[in-house]
Amino acid sequence: MQEHILGTLGWPFQAPNAAYGLSTLDIEADTLIPLHPIPSSQQIYEYLQLYCSKDSLLVVSPYTTHHHLLDLRRVGTPQQLMAKALTVMASLRRDFAIAPYDEAFNWPTVMNALRGLAQDEGFSWQRQEFHVIAFRSTLAPAADYLRLGEMDERAHAEATKSGGLLKYWFGEPDVHGRNLATCIWRSHEDTKGGSGGDQHQSAMKMTKSWFAKWAVERKKLVVGDKVQHWWFEDWTEDSKL
User: Fold this and answer.
1) Distance (Å, rounded) from C-alpha 10 to C-alpha 1?
2) Contact 157, 199 (CB under 8 A)
3) Which of 77, 93, 158, 173 could lock onto 199 through a cystine, CB 3.0 to 4.6 A?
4) Do 159 and 183 meet the contact criterion of CB atoms below 8 Å apart?
5) Is the CB of residue 170 less than 8 Å from the CB of residue 156?
């Protein structure tokens, strides 16, 4: 377990991820993606306004229609703040599909946003834990990209309906077909509702034919008091969330 102390890191304003199969990333190029200066609180709010509607529905994935949005009224204040902060989540490395999870994304930027949002709302942040699922895969040559995208979209809508899904992110396959998709949930209990639906089960049945390789990682994201430090732990049945 590596503990991270809150510091400063650049702000990569990146466009939403393309759908599966539309393009690829060449990881032979520079590994690190250039970053921009850290945002001010006003920039954070302007960014959030692009994603949060007036009726408290937040865009938390590449899918932006109504049934894919998180209803902030269904989760507590810590989860609301985390979901908002996660809208700035972006990959830092071109080899994110194979990079260690805590190095693949701009977590310091997310935590800076989270701390600022909590302070501006006058919320005293106490230690919180979240459940993380990372799906690493290598596409099979015969994978049906269009159908894969359609089933993924339906599964996400189903997971959103179950409640507690704070973030869903997926990248673009690299030249070897490797990719990473990840979900951040309010708790482990929430994942049971999200993964037990018909759409998710149908998608999982197609895994063997669409992916040459795949693996699921489960982690616990711990955010300490006042968002001064955070870390990831491998999740086990003994973990408490």
Assistant:
1) 24
2) yes
3) 158
4) yes
5) no
